[in-house]
Write a structure and sequence with these properties.
This protein has about 450 residues and is of the alpha/beta class. The protein is built from 21 helices and 17 strands.
């Protein structure tokens, strides 16, 4: 890349926090490009940076500023100095609060979406798509979101796709370790905000007598293990909780069983890509994101329903040659798509594309904006058209209208277990950061009373 006047261009990353899957992607990327003479990277975390991120800042040599949501003027000053602003975006209260309330100084803004955008509360809105100069998606699946299609086709918005990856170098050379049982592994979020609410049931449908299921991750592994015990399935499952090193587990997996909920928010699915790089054939459900990662009967199996999911695992149990063929193809797919080198090259092209653009001020264009906007209205901005039940509650002029609005909100909560989450852009999440907002308090309490019984009933 040709630099302007030989100086290093400053890329300022703004992220809600630095930890977990997105944190691994960002940190591994910065490690990969640390010797690049064209760019100097800085990171602003609105919330926390975990110990891994803090250590990486010292060893890799990038500047990291954490807990910056309380210092918006400092953020604005850093933006004014940067050549490129890269916003790592998902529905996080502190990020939306900053975008809605602040007017940014002239800048060149990229927004990298870390969600698929199909289901609330993780959705694209007209306001968020209007905000940056270029929107970058982490999966081509998001190109099918109606708001994205309309934005691109009707308004000509610049859209790019960069598969999000933390790199697969640690997994490409992995070879199976001898073991006795036929092992189906799951690594990732162990919570029904992400995994399918019938995960236990569909796994228990697998009739192979020697099949066992190893589940790695949290935060709800204890609750789900207790559920397995109640239904008499606990002998089939081993819950390991959070693990620091997944390689020893992957070495003993015969199949990567990764059935996610139909309303999940993910895109590139790091653990799925790592399993494919390790040559473990995946079995997934036909959700939007997974269909763009796994090609049915080419590098994995894609099931249309729960019964077919169980049958797919049984098929791989009974046909070791098919397992081997899918394993080899999964490695090839991962190498072509999910290496760090591929991601770095794509980002360099985008940086090259945006640098010649003039810097322009950025301001929120939604229904509510400015420093005096209540937090409950910020929450509405994050939902766009999906926020109607909540806006009905805010605008209610009498008890009847408010009661009707509450019914609509409960109906929204009952649509998926994600609304119970304490994070994920839910009213619970917003209430955590803005406990003084009376409406967020009401909506948070309402979510705790809404649909746990219905979800439990669906599994019995």
């Amino acid at each position: 890349m040709n630099c302007h006047s030989g100086k290093r261009n400053i890329v300022l990353h703004i992220t809600p926090h630095l930890g977990g899957g997105v944190g691994s992607v960002v940190l591994n990327y910065l490690e990969e490009v640390k010797g690049n003479p064209d760019f100097l990277h800085k990171i602003i975390c609105l919330e926390y940076a975990n110990e891994k991120a803090l250590s990486a800042s010292r060893t890799t040599g990038f500047r990291l500023m954490e807990s910056m949501s309380a210092h918006p003027d400092t953020i604005l000053e850093e933006i004014s100095k940067a050549d490129i602003l890269l916003i790592h975006w998902w529905n996080h209260p502190l990020l939306y609060d900053f975008l809605v309330r602040q007017v940014l100084p002239p800048c060149r803004a990229l927004l990298w979406s870390h969600i698929s955008g199909f289901h609330p509360p993780y959705v694209f809105t007209r306001a968020i798509l209007d905000y940056p100069d270029i929107v970058v998606l982490t999966s081509p699946a998001s190109l099918d979101v109606p708001e994205i299609r309309r934005c691109h086709e009707e308004e000509g918005k610049a859209l790019r796709v960069v598969w999000s990856t933390g790199g697969i170098a640690d997994f490409e050379s992995l070879r199976p370790r001898p073991h006795r049982a036929f092992t189906v592994g799951y690594i990732g979020t162990v919570d029904y905000s992400k995994m399918h609410p019938d995960f236990l049931k569909m796994s228990a449908l697998v009739s192979a007598p020697d099949a066992r299921f190893i589940v790695c991750g949290g935060p709800s592994e204890k609750t789900i293990r207790e559920e397995a015990i109640r239904f008499g399935w606990d002998h089939k499952f081993r819950f390991k909780g959070q693990v620091n090193d997944t390689v020893p587990y992957l070495a003993e997996f015969d199949v990567f069983g990764y059935p996610l909920s139909p309303y999940h928010y993910g895109t590139c699915e790091q653990s799925l890509c790592e399993a494919m790089a390790a040559g473990i054939p995946p079995v997934v459900l036909s959700n939007n994101a997974e269909r763009f990662i796994v090609r049915d009967h080419v590098d994995g199996l894609v099931a249309e329903n729960q019964q077919q999911y169980a049958e797919s695992i049984e098929l791989l149990h009974n046909r070791p040659q098919l397992r081997l063929e899918l394993s080899e193809n999964a490695r090839k797919t991962a190498k072509a798509r999910f290496t760090m080198e591929v991601m770095v090259q794509k980002w360099e092209k985008i940086f090259e594309e945006i640098l010649p653009l003039p810097k322009t001020s950025k301001q929120w264009r939604g229904n509510f904006k400015g420093r005096t906007v209540p937090a409950s209205r910020v929450f509405l901005e994050s939902l766009g058209k999906y926020g109607r039940p909540f806006s009905m509650f805010l605008d209610a002029s009498n008890t009847y209208e408010r009661g009707h609005a509450m019914e609509q909100i409960v109906r929204r909560y009952n649509s998926s277990a994600i609304w119970e989450a304490q994070t994920r852009g839910t009213p619970n999440h917003y209430n955590t950061f803005f406990p003084g907002d009376e409406y967020l308090r009401v909506w948070s309490r309402l979510s705790k009373k809404s649909h746990a019984p219905q979800i439990l009933e669906s599994r019995t």
